Amino acid sequence: MPYVTFEQDKAYLLGKFRHPVFDPSTGLDNETIMQQMLPLADTMEGLPHPVIKGRLFAYICRNLQIDVSPHDWFPGFGCWDRYRRPISPVISRWDREVNEQILRESIPVIRKHNEAGLFSMWKDFDHSVPDWEAILTLGFPGLLERARHYRARHERAETLTEAAKAYFDGIELSLQAVLEMLDRFIRYAREHADGNPRMLAEADCLEQLRTGAPHNCYEVLQMIYLHFMFCEHIDRMQVRSLGNLDRILFPYFERDLREHRYTEAQIREFFACFFMQFASINNYWGHPFFLGGTKADGSTEVNPLSYLILDVFDKLGVTSPKIQLKIARNTPHAFIDKALDMIRRGHSSLVFVSEESIRSAMMSHGLTEEQARTCDISGCYEFVPRAQGNTTGVGYLNLLKPFELIFNDGKDPKTGLTFSCGAEKLDEIQSFDAFFDAYLRWLGDVIETAIYCSSEFEKYLYVINPAQLYSATIRNSLETARDAFSNGCVYNNSSLLSAGFGTAVDALMAVKEFVFDRQELTLAEFRDILNRNWAGHEKLRLRILHAKNKYGNGIEAVDALALRLARFLGEKINLRPNARGGIYEASGHCARTFITLGERTGATPDGRFAGDEMSKNLSPTMGMDRNGVTALIRSVTQIDPTIFPAGLTLDVMMHPATVQGEEGLTAMRGLLFTYLLNNGIAMNINIFDANVLEDAQRHPERYEGLQVRVCGWNVRFNDLSRKEQDAYIERARNIAE
Which residues, in sequence order, are bridge partners of residue 395? Predict the structure, then answer.
């Protein structure tokens, strides 16, 4: 097979989905198909949703514009924008119908709490991880035959209910359509190759996948890409991990080299082109895969392909996909050092996750050590039993909103909406313990409301958006004939995430110190100051803002309060039954709600202005960790990972001067292991100099490639808002060299 240097095609690949050009003779554009979805669905009124969706899926596959290019190893789909997926109008209609016809009591409650910013809640279809083992072992034809086998088994057992028939019909229609679309790609490649060896090789690859399972590295990457595109962009079900790529592909990699099928240079090109598909799609949240892990015999899964993958990604300099690294005591230091070196040179797409802490978290909820060892890392930092688990993110709790409700006796000052929970009114609170109790009562009420609402709507996820392709990969779903995204997995859990943990601790400490310990002002006076957004009280605000007792500085009293808050969240959420046959899990992850919920939250006692962002994940408020990264880690590791079995994440910022040379690399590795082997589950690292960030803000054209790890994903510094940039600059000013 000919090898063409990747650099010749990089510009095309980056623009493939950002500035796409499709041959109009191949079919209809995305917008036209979107416009046809509702009229087509109307012609099928009365049919079960899985059947309607399967037929619409087939229509898209037969009519969507396609491309096979001499500049790429992977075909082009005429749909790539996750915010404009062609089938979305129908899914949105079904969502509205469920809201209006069934969820008449809970939807107004959700809207009220969302509007006031008490939580952020929506129906989550974004955290499924398919069974990659089944996909790569069976291929598309094998998945179809397996589904038919289970359908026949249900027929023989007389368990093929009307709902089960619809379930299997939807899978049949979808997988048949996948095969038809592969035929379209193959025909187009053959007809337009004009002797081009790359297009002919791509056609050969697609023909293999049309008839069976993949046999080599290129075919495996092609299979992963195709399943991602079919599932995420046509079936509208996110694929939140591309899998454990080094472990999955290593046997193929070894065989390809041993049998001289491909050279290492060719395999590098396949990976480079594969990664560029996701860089071009440019999903804001990034697209994850993970490396590393531990084998059954206790040895590391890290192998020569692990290093090759990092090396290829290093040379690309893109912000997506994002890579999660499973780290354990057995992980080679050379591999960790390679990743840390990439980070200190500006590659912020890497995040470290601890196998040891994941094991503690999962086993605390009844899972086995083997399930923990083989778990998939998905989304930003989440983890689920491989091919057995699906954990939705049902809501994000605003840990700062209870302060506004305490100070205003249940009234949200911004919206005027009122709430009640039985907590003491402001003028009744006479001690910090009483204030903290009121805070927990309000927070507990928000949690109870979130659980009530999510338990109502999660019953209908499979009605709103049947997960046809995802279900086809999950054995338990086929065995039970139940949608895998609803209750067809073995573990169908729901996570409640939280935003503002560190800022909430700071706010509690500010009330304790300035109201009850120093008695510098009353709660009523504090209320008036906060409702005026600190106007006329800037000196007080700065004194509070720069007070010593801030979370993330290794201060015993502050850390003890943080642990009390964490335990409350865990005890209130964990192990409670959900509506899908699973349980609720607490998470210390917040995604982007540290910004969006912050915008809906007034001034808080820690010195924060109304509308400002709050702390993210289990990290301190931006700029408040002033005692160095060692003290920061000491604070966060007081929290046991079993409290947050759905994720416990720390964001670290270090100055470039502290990570230079071999000594700097050794120091980074030491901090990493200190955190990950002592309760920490996940760690992001940014290496920043405040002067550089300020210059980048003034001269963005000089820093096009400057990357920032925002939360669970990676972006360019230039793409952040001015307010977000200022927050990173403020924190960078406070870190010690």
Answer: 121, 496
Q: What is the pLDDT of residue 730?
A: 84
Q: Which amino acid is located at 585 in the chain?
A: E
> Does 467 have pLDDT greater than 80?
yes
Burial annotation 182-205 (CB, 10 A radius, 16+ → b, else e): bebbbebbeebbeeeebbbbbbeb
Report how far residue 160's alpha carbon sits from residue 152's, in angstroms, rounded to the nearest whole number. Answer: 9
Return the percent helix, strand and coil in the chain, to nearest 5: 55, 10, 35
Q: What is the DSSP letter of 424?
A: P
Helix 501-510 to helix 432-457 angle (10° resolution) is: 160
pLDDT beyond 70 at 465: yes
User: Long-range contacts of range 545-548, CB-CB < 8 Å, 24 or more positions apart?
Assistant: 545/606, 545/607, 546/607, 547/509, 547/510, 547/513, 547/514
Q: Give residue 711's pLDDT band: very low, low, confident or very high (50, 70, 90).
A: confident
Q: Is 495:382 a contact under the CB 8 Å cutoff?
A: yes
Question: 714-716 and 707-709: which strand pairing?
Answer: antiparallel
**H/E/C letters for each residue in 560-610?**
HHHHHHHHHHHHHHCCCECCCCCEEEEECCCCCHHHHHHHCCCCECCCECC
Asked if 301 and 293 touch (Cβ cutoff 8 Å), the reply is yes
What is the DSSP code (8-state) at residue 195? T
CA distances (Å), origin 407, targets 404, 480, 543 = 5, 51, 21
Asked whether the beta carbons of 49 and 94 are under 8 A apart, the reply is yes
Q: Is the dihedral of CA 163, 474, 141, 199 positive or negative?
A: positive
List the alpha helices (DSSP H) in 117-263.
Answer: 132-156, 162-192, 197-211, 217-228, 245-258
Which two structure tokens, joined as six digits, stand for 615?
A: 């702390």
Which of 466, 452, 446 has its CA nearest to residue 494? Answer: 452
- Residue 489: C-alpha distances to residues 472, 477, 648 (Å): 11, 6, 24
Q: Assess contact for 590 and 617: CB atoms under 8 A.
A: yes
CA distance 83 to 561: 41
Give dist(CA 397, CA 395) in Å, integer: 6
Q: 111 forms bridges with which residues in the sheet?
A: none
Nearest CA-CA partner of 631 in 692, 722, 559, 700:
559
* Digit-coded pLDDT (tens) for 193-245: 999 999 999 999 999 999 999 999 999 999 999 999 999 999 999 999 999 99
Helix axes 162-192, 49-63, angle to 10 degrees: 0
Q: Is 160 helix (H, G, I), strand (E, B) or coil?
A: coil
- Burial (CB count within 10 angstroms: exposed 0-12, middle 13-18, buried 19+), residue 308: middle
Q: What is the pTM of this model?
A: 0.96
CB 475 within 8 A of CB 131: yes
